[in-house]
Amino acid sequence: MTMKTITMRRLAAATLLASSLALGACGGSMPNPGMASAKAPLVTQTILVHDLGYAGSDGLSGEQRKSLSEWFDGIGVRYGDRVSVDDQGSGSGVRRAAIASVLAEYGLLLSEQVPVTPGAGNAGARVVVMRAAATVPGCPDWTRGSNAEFEASTMSNYGCASESNLAAMVVDANDLVSGKAHTGTDALTTVKAIETYRGKAAEGTDKVKSTVGTAGSN
C-alpha cells in the first residue's frame, strides 16, 4: 500500500488583501478590513493504492476479492472517497466490473478520474483511493482582540467558526477546491422524497389496543 499526501489551499479574497496591508498592521496578526473571512480551509489529499496483480481475464479470483475487501476494511473506505481502477491490461473491463461489485458492498461507485501513481503500469490491476480532508489552520485565533483600533478591522478570530464548520461538514473536501460540474436535474429523483413522504402512513393512527387482566388473590 502506498500513501501520498498533496496539500491544496483555497484562498479567500480577504487573505490576499490582508497580505497587502501587512505593513500597516499593529498588534499580533494582520488586519482584515473586509467582511469576508481571512481564514480558509486547508485541503489535504491522500492517495492510497492497492495492487491486485495480474488478475485473470475472467475477473478477480476469490483470494483477490478477499484481499480487496480486507484492504477496504483496513483503510475504512467511506462515502466521500474517490475510488478508481488503473488497469490497462487485457480483460480490464471485466476486472473493473468485478472490483466495482466489491466496492458496491460499501455503498460506493467507481470514479472515472484515475490519478497518476508511480509504478502503475507494472502493477496489473491497481485500485486507487483518493481521500481529502479539510482543516482550518490557525483557528481559533485570538491574537487580535476587540480593542479599539484605527484600521476598522475585524477580530482575528472572525470567520473561524464558519470556516471550521464548513470544513467539518463537507463530505468531499475536494469540492472546496473545485466543485462538481452541474449535470442537470433529474425530475424523478427530485420528487422521489415527496412521493415517499406522501405515500407513508401517518404514525400513531392505529387504535390503542386495550387488554383486560385478572387480578390474582392470595
Automatic annotation (TrEMBL):
InterPro entries: Pilus_biogenesis_CpaD-related. Residues 1-24 form the signal peptide. It comes from the Bacteria. Keywords: Signal. PROSITE patterns: PROKAR_LIPOPROTEIN (PS51257). This is Pilus assembly protein CpaD. It comes from Sphingosinicella soli. The lineage of its organism: Bacteria, Pseudomonadati, Pseudomonadota, Alphaproteobacteria, Sphingomonadales.
